[in-house]
Amino acid sequence: MSDAKASAAEAVESHVRAFFEGHAVEVVDCDLGPGRRDVSPDLRVLVVGPGPRSDGWAYVTAGCWAAMEKDGHGLEFVMTAHVRDRRFVELMAMIASYHCGGHQLDLEHSVPIGEPWVPGSSCDHLLISLPYFHGPDLEHCPVPGGHARILWALPVTTAETEFRRRHGHEALEQLFDEAEIIPTDPFRASVV
Tens digits of per-residue pLDDT, 95-153? Predict the structure, then answer.
């Protein structure tokens, strides 16, 4: 890893640790496997335990910005969940691989997971959204020579993804607000 890329990943980690002060944070190295390792060779997922900011778990990528930045700007991703599970680390590695492997994700994009978020969940897609659960203080992360934007990978249903395609992102978010969804509940009902 170049010094600049290492510094960027360290800056993301420092930012996450500062934002989640009082929470345990574990760094999990992710090997994306042969053929995908080169797209983000030093990807890590920061696993944030419950604490003063949230009683749930947060999983944050560190390494996407370093692999994909353009003019000093790039993305990282956060997912919130109800428990600690290796499954969520693997989903964050999948998102990173997808994003860094030529399918550049951005705000309002969605990604099919290919199976339920957790067994028995109707959520089988991830919607890239603003990190409403954590706010702009997590979203905006300074890194040397630019900034990373940390966006939320929110588990959603196929029906919600199709609704968003037909009616727009804002219309879907309005339905989420009206239904007062609990984003960490893998068994929540679809709002559509």
Answer: 998 898 888 899 999 999 999 999 999 999 999 999 998 999 999 999 998 999 999 99
Q: Which tokens is 104 given?
A: 């550049």
What contacts 18, CB < 8 A, 6 or more positions away?
A: none
Q: Is 118 helix (H, G, I), strand (E, B) or coil?
A: coil
Distance CA 115, CA 117 (A): 6
Q: What is the pLDDT of residues 12-64, one digit of tens each?
A: 999 999 999 999 999 998 766 666 556 666 789 999 999 999 999 999 999 89
Say how far residue 100 (Cα) sits from the centre of its chain: 13
Pairwise CA distance, residues 57 & 19, whole Å: 14
Residues shown for the chain: 192
Sign of CA dihedral 15, 107, 57, 97: negative
The radius of gyration of the chain from alpha carbons, rounded to an integer in Å, stands at 16
- Residue 166 tokens, joined: 């037909």
Range list of β-strands (E), 22-179: 25-29, 44-48, 57-62, 73-81, 110-112, 123-129, 140-143, 146-157
Domain boundaries, the chain: 3-154
- Scanning the structure block, which residue is given the tokens 């574990």? 26
Model pTM score: 0.93
